[in-house]
Design goal:
heterodimer; A: 998 residues; Ubiquitin-like (UB roll); FAD/NAD(P)-binding domain; 23 helices; elongated; B: 89 residues; Folate-binding fold; two-stranded antiparallel sheet; 6 strands; globular; binds zinc ion
């Protein structure tokens, strides 16, 4: 295939590097520096897809970010990505792309029948047409729409690419490297300000690359290149191409997506594919330019109809002709620039100008070049199905209402210019209330809301000289305020062709007897007639019209359609455009890949992983790990091919018969110091703390102010004014914040300091009847007898030269101790315990055995303290001091909390003593009662009791105190189980608590 | 993302802080008799203001101090920040 639309001597592509690519399976060639769009047009390919609703043929409309049509499915390095704009995707060797939204193929598309049935598919067709009969929706409409609609297919494979996030601060962030961006960046950089200049395209310079202008005796392109190369050398300047600033958030935080590798066949080693920048800027200069507006006429969506500025860009940047027989349709001077470029390259265009007799340098130049210009002429309709073949044109009356005789002219493209719309998205996102500028028929930013200033065409300034002048000044002024430098720059001499006023004409009337579709929104197929219907049906607010018709709701967010939509509504409603107002601009300005938003925080990197100092020992000893919050904890230590049930049962049984050791490093630890430490504990915990002696530990429960249990744990008095608090693993961070809240805000008079020491201490619990024998061997110099270290006692000891803290506390109901050493000595401690414990048949146990042991002794934990239960529910009411006030006490007198049949914790055993009870099951009185079967309570935790060798569960049941001995049913609809059970005491092992004190 | 001036650390990003609710709520003194209504007002009842609002934040990933911030709930503009022991004027 030859590139028959490529010119020889024009463009900025690298002709030395030829690239091959595939579109819809067919091989084509282009050059380095092409976009997929320019390369396809060079090959004469104009049919690229089908429209969303009517499946009409779609070609190219723009040359960049504003493109509504040319959306493809991209294939790169074994991955696929939907919703890629061919006008933005740079060509690389081996690129593959396919059309979307067509089935079975772009040339024969079944959905195109919608086009011929379109009388049935007007505005609101989703709401109306598919409403009846209801069964049709599931069987016929929905499957059909699902198959036919959509803008590509998302990959369901794991994305191998890496995406990164970066946080940056700067003095000035400048969004766009056209004339205003370059001038302001240059002035600010010369003043020493820290500048970030972002350009969404691969080439810097914006319109300077395609305009016939002269700045300081250089062409616009040369001037842009010299400014950029100077900026690149400056250490205070960061310039980024392929980087779109897409969102303006609170407090001058902007987010930019940098496409680092999308233009390469594959991502380089150690490089990310994309990077998301969070930029906090002192000042933001919005230099995003403007986008050309279409003029609305019949069949204006036919491939070959495109923006005149796009035609110029394809020609001057890519050396590509969008047609060899072009028709230029314009209401202003910009169309002439495109026509002149065609003429200079040996192509004879025809200009249709809606104006009667415009006088300007550009018009004169076109006349002098001998270009065929028809004044007061319009395109009535494009003809041709998959590509423009001719245009129906006619003279238009002065009042723009009457068309003359319709003639046909042959052409292969129609380049439209309906004047320019400032790109105000970022300004609007910042909170700026926009204002309507009468002379350009468009909205421009109003008073700044945050620290943003809009420059140049984005601010409705369309002459180069004025743009450069105000941009130099703004860049200089804002940077001076920040850096206090005052380096003046001499303003270059600017030569540009003067334009005259545009014609506020935007929509060609229909000729008599013709019913051409005239499209406003090209991506969502919204035509003039759809807006007319919406208004006829009573929609008035532009926000409602938008949602009913889907105008501007496609992925291009109406970049080319919004203003013409507003013009139409204002015309029908007989209002001025500003009275209609515009819809809200929301980020992102352009689609951003999900990968970039997520960044590195995927899979196991979605949260940090915390490991105890003994982790590698656990690994070496076949621990099977479980996530406990952000911690990794051994669930059980696998022996041979035993499973979780067998392994945890073995471990728990060994604790009850011999001795076990468990890594409890993850428990939250808070160091509390100060003369008022006891008073703080007395207010935070529900029980009394003022008289706890030094060297003693106490179990405590803390509440939230609403009376709900927040956490439990033991706190030990290390010395007079020094306490060591433990919290559950899950609540450690919340408890610390809770204490800080009361100390800093509520009771600042208390002289206490709190600090987390969770990571400073490694902890090992040793539990079982032989634990004291083991302890004696570990601490031969200490008296660890029942008298020397009684239950809830504390002492310090010497563990083979390592300083250790020894607590006599128990979570398992057995005689048990907890040893803490500094984290660095954790592994030493663990290995010593295992080594010395051999003669007592010690085994390590994991969280599953830990659970079993605590459940069968009726000790509450996270599954009972779930943020819904009060002390009474957990049988902790004995810990509520009557003598003193504490956090949450007042709430415990609430009516629901003191009701006679209040829920309470109980034990549950299956009658057959065999069937395991699923956690989360409901307890009911009658298993065959009609639904909804009244629920009496729920199973909070289940285990296999190693003491009794049968299943045992804890449950929180209504009127629990009177339920002991009752027979109920456990129901688990999820597991389809109904189990007859008996309610027993929650203390299933050693109810008198003798073992812990033995 | 908000940019918050911690009175101890200076300007920091919102993701270093956690929100702590209405700063004007005062906890009844310990041991003091309060009516159900007073207690409910302290624990549950909050105004959902549009506009200027004094609120508590904790500089969780910084100095860990609780601070008071006067913020516009509609525009997110921050007018003032105070240390925990400074009274709202
Ligand atoms: Zn701070």
């Amino acid at each position: 295939m030859t590139q028959s639309f490529r010119l020889e001597n024009i463009g900025m592509i690298n002709r030395n590097k030829k690239l091959s690519f595939k579109f819809n399976g067919k091989v084509y060639y282009g050059y380095e520096g092409d976009t997929l769009a320019s390369a396809l047009i060079a090959n004469g390919v104009h049919l690229i897809g089908r429209s969303f609703k009517y499946h009409r043929p779609r070609g190219f409309f723009g040359a960049g970010v504003d493109e509504p049509y040319a959306i493809v499915q991209l294939y790169r390095n074994g991955e696929t990505e939907p919703n890629i704009k061919a006008t933005e995707q740079e060509l690389f060797e081996g690129l593959e792309a396919k059309s979307v939204n067509c089935w079975p193929s772009v040339n024969f598309d079944v959905g195109a029948i919608n086009n011929f049935l379109r009388i049935f598919l007007p505005a609101g067709f989703y709401y109306k047409t598919f409403m009846w009969p209801k069964s049709f929706w599931y069987k016929i409409y929905e499957p059909f729409i699902r198959k036919a609609a959509g803008l590509g297919v998302a990959s369901i494979k794991h994305d191998k690419e890496r995406y990164e996030h970066k946080y940056e601060y700067c003095d000035l962030l400048i969004t766009g490297s056209g004339p205003s961006g370059l001038a302001s960046a240059y002035a600010a950089a010369k003043n020493g300000a820290k500048v970030i200049l972002a350009e969404d395209k691969s080439r810097f310079g914006g319109t300077l690359l395609t305009s016939e202008v002269n700045i300081g005796n250089q062409s616009g392109k040369e001037w842009a290149e010299s400014v950029i190369s100077e900026l690149k050398e400056m250490p205070n300047v960061t310039i980024k191409n392929r980087s779109q600033v897409f969102g303006y958030y609170d407090h001058n935080m902007l987010v930019m997506s940098e496409r680092i590798s999308d233009h390469l066949p594959q991502t380089k080693k150690f490089h990310p594919k994309q990077r998301l920048w969070y930029i906090r800027a002192k000042e933001v200069l919005i230099s995003s330019g403007s986008i050309e507006r279409p003029i609305v006429f019949g069949n204006n969506d036919t491939p070959g109809v495109m923006l005149s500025s796009a035609a110029k860009e394809y020609l001057k940047i890519y050396g590509v002709l969008v047609g060899k027989n072009p028709l230029i349709f314009t209401n202003n001077d910009s169309g002439y620039e495109t026509a002149i470029e065609f003429q200079k390259n040996g192509i004879n265009p025809i200009i249709l100008d809606t104006r009667k007799d415009p006088k300007s340098e550009l018009v004169d130049e076109a006349k002098n070049l001998g270009i065929n210009i028809k004044f007061s002429y319009v395109v009535v309709a494009a003809q041709g199905y998959k590509k423009v073949k001719s245009a129906d044109i006619a003279k238009i009356s002065e009042d723009k209402e009457q068309l003359g005789t319709v003639e046909s002219v042959k052409c292969d493209c129609i380049c439209v210019s309906g004047f320019w719309t400032p790109t105000i998205h970022l300004a609007s996102q910042s909170g700026n209330k926009t204002k309507f500028k009468e002379d350009i028929d468009a909205f421009v930013p109003g008073t700044s809301k945050q620290n943003e200033t809009t420059l140049g065409a984005a601010n409705g300034t369309y002459t180069l000289e004025e743009t450069l002048k105000s941009s130099f000044e703004t860049g200089h002024k804002l940077s001076k305020e920040i850096t206090k430098n005052d380096n003046k720059i001499s303003f270059p001499n600017v030569i540009e062709k003067k334009s005259t006023v545009h014609d506020k004409f935007w929509c060609v009337p229909l000729p008599k007897g013709k019913n051409y579709k005239r499209f406003l929104d090209f991506q969502n197929d919204v035509a003039v007639s759809d807006i007319e219907i919406a208004l006829k049906e009573g929609y008035r607010s532009i926000e409602h019209v938008k949602r009913y018709t889907t105008l501007g709701m496609a992925t291009d967010q109406g970049k080319t359609s919004n203003l013409n939509g507003l013009q139409l509504v204002s015309k029908i409603e007989n209002k001025v455009v500003p009275a209609v107002g515009h819809t809200t601009f929301r980020p992102p300005y352009t689609p951003v890949s999900i990968g970039a938003i997520v960044g590195r925080e995927v899979g196991k990197h979605s949260k940090p992983t915390r490991k105890s100092p003994m982790h590698s020992w656990h690994e070496k000893n076949n621990a099977v790990f479980v996530d406990a919050g952000v911690w990794l904890r051994p669930r059980y230590y696998k022996q041979g091919d035993e499973n979780l049930f067998e392994g945890s049962k073995r471990e728990a049984k060994n604790v009850r018969t011999n001795v076990g050791v468990c890594d409890v490093t993850t428990l939250g630890k808070i160091d509390i110091k100060g003369p008022d430490a006891a008073e703080l504990l007395n207010r935070v915990y529900t029980n009394a703390w003022l008289k706890l002696p030094v060297g003693k530990a106490r179990y405590g429960v803390m509440l939230r102010e609403d009376g709900i249990v927040m956490d439990d744990g033991t706190t030990t008095r290390i010395s007079e004014n020094h306490y060591h608090m433990t919290t559950t693993t899950a609540q450690a961070a919340n408890v610390l914040s809770h204490l800080e809240y009361y100390l800093q805000l509520v009771w600042p008079e208390l002289n206490v300091n709190v600090v987390s020491t969770t990571e400073q201490w490694a902890g090992a619990a040793i539990a079982g009847p032989k634990s004291r024998n083991l302890l004696q061997k570990l601490f031969p110099k200490s008296d660890v007898s029942n008298e020397g270290l009684p239950f809830m006692g504390y002492m310090e000891g010497d563990l083979f030269g390592v300083k250790a803290r020894i607590f006599r506390i128990s979570f398992s109901g057995e005689l048990a101790y907890e040893i803490n050493v500094e984290s660095d000595n954790g592994n030493f401690m663990w290995e010593k315990i295992i080594e010395v414990g051999q003669e007592f048949k010690i085994q390590p146990y994991g969280t599953e055995a830990l659970s079993t042991l605590r459940i069968e002794m009726g000790h509450v934990a996270g599954s009972e303290l779930d943020g819904r239960t009060i002390p009474y529910d957990n049988s902790l009411e004995g810990l509520l001091s009557k003598k003193k006030d504490f956090i949450g006490k007042r709430s415990l007198t609430r009516k629901a909390f003191i009701s006679e049949d209040r829920q309470k914790i109980v034990g549950v055993i299956p009658l057959d003593k065999k069937t395991s009870i699923p956690e989360g099951s409901h307890l009911v009185k009658d298993s065959s009662a009609p639904l909804p079967n009244p629920k009496l309570g729920y199973i909070s935790a289940s285990c296999w009791s190693v003491e009794h060798d049968n299943p045992f569960s804890l449950a929180i049941v209504k009127d629990g105190k009177n339920m002991i001995g009752k027979k109920l049913f456990v129901m688990s609809p999820l597991k389809n189980k109904v189990i007859p059970v008996e309610i027993v005491s929650s203390h299933y092992v050693d109810p008198k608590g003798e073992r812990v004190r033995s | 993302m908000l940019h918050i001036k911690c009175p101890h650390c200076g300007m920091r990003s919102q993701n270093e802080f956690s929100y702590g609710g209405d700063a004007s709520v005062k906890r009844p003194e310990l041991g003091k008799e309060v009516t159900d209504q007073e207690w409910d007002d302290f624990v549950y009842n909050r105004k959902s203001l549009r506009g200027k609002h004094w609120e508590l934040w904790q500089h969780l990933s910084g100095c860990r101090q609780w601070i008071k911030i006067e913020r516009d709930t509609a525009t997110h503009e921050i007018f003032n920040t105070l240390k925990a022991n400074e009274e709202i004027s």
